[in-house]
Amino acid sequence: MAPSGPVSGWSVEEVAAWLTGELSLPAAVADAFKENAVAGGDLVGLSDDDLTSELGLTKLQARKRYRQLDQQMRELRALELPSKLEQARRFAVQSRQQLEGAQRAVPPARQAVSEAQEEHKKYSDGGWYPGKVLGGKEKQQKKADESQAALDAASANLARAEQAVRDLTAQLAEAEKQLAAWRGKESELATAQRTQQELVNRMFAAPAWSASPTLSALNDATRALEAQAAEQGRGVATYGNGTKLLNGAAQKLESAIKALQGTQMLNMMGMGRGMRITAATGRPGMMQPNLMQNVAEMAILRKANDAVASAAQDTAQARQLLGPGLPQVNEEIMKAARAGIFQNVLFGGVMSDIMQAAAVAKSVKAVEQMLGEVRKAAQWSQANLSVYQHKQAELSAQASAKQAEAQAYRTSALRTALEAPVAAATTGVEQLSLI
């Protein structure tokens, strides 16, 4: 049986014992390993040339490393480790929960015993309670018997609770032991897989395998497909960022339009108020909104102004990123948006309601035009993004298929080299008892 623990921790003596025990190699081989002080940390790094030239193994003996690891992994996989490990985890969790519940039951049981003892003292010899003298000896004896029975029941309940804690403590220890054992098997399988993969990689890095026309063709095809997929990935990144910028710009413009529409409503309220004043007084006025309306209107306009300016900046970045193929957005509107499309309203001084409403309406129309053009640009960018994404996924799938084909070829070649049987027996595998 192989030494316990990871291979990297094996001593020189453990490596020698493994060679003669597990691999059934001659003692002379083990002696050569001892002479060269080959410990577990050195074992995995040995090349086939090290084994045959420096340590005196034949090629068939060197090949036993692959065969032994292959057999070990098949035996471990036969244990169905994932399901057994999950069962062990659940059992450990269940045992811990049961133990915690049993531990919570002990203090109340102890308290019940303490209370029963105090009650029993009242009715035992020398005890006193109200009405003791009046009740007579027969009644006193009856109460003493009842209190003794209650004390016995409480003591028995405490004993059961404490025994349950002891039993469940032992059960939890066993559950954790089993969980550790299955985790050890999982680690053993992972170590064997890594070790075999390192050995296989070195095997196929040898000149004979490096010159294999089949492997060379598959590896070349894989690299070419991966390069093409990476190129498409760059397109995905470019158009993904451009689409994100344009969609963000469209959202900002939509919010600005809603704000502008609200501003027009406030203007209509102001004009209505001015018309009512004119009708009542006979004096024409500027029909301006009241102070609170002005404050609210300016706040909305500033917010819309900032949103449109930010949208223009995003659109300009997208244009720079995606190039001249991007559908154009009106440059005059873009220029006005970057400068502040509502500056004339925000800083225009005293302005009549009609003039202000006209200025806002003109700005709304410009922003609506810009929104339509930005949406078209976003749709164009999204369409290109979808094409790049489809091509990238297609090429990545083809590269994965070539990788799988190469791996299948390597596996087939390794099986042939090992002369391994198709089905391996699992006799001798340690069977854990609990699960």
TrEMBL record:
<dbReference type="InterPro" id="IPR013761">
    <property type="entry name" value="SAM/pointed_sf"/>
</dbReference>
<feature type="compositionally biased region" description="Basic and acidic residues">
    <location>
        <begin position="135"/>
        <end position="146"/>
    </location>
</feature>
<feature type="region of interest" description="Disordered">
    <location>
        <begin position="99"/>
        <end position="148"/>
    </location>
</feature>
<feature type="domain" description="SAM">
    <location>
        <begin position="10"/>
        <end position="76"/>
    </location>
</feature>
<dbReference type="InterPro" id="IPR001660">
    <property type="entry name" value="SAM"/>
</dbReference>
<protein>
    <recommendedName>
        <fullName>SAM domain-containing protein</fullName>
    </recommendedName>
</protein>
<dbReference type="Pfam" id="PF07647">
    <property type="entry name" value="SAM_2"/>
</dbReference>
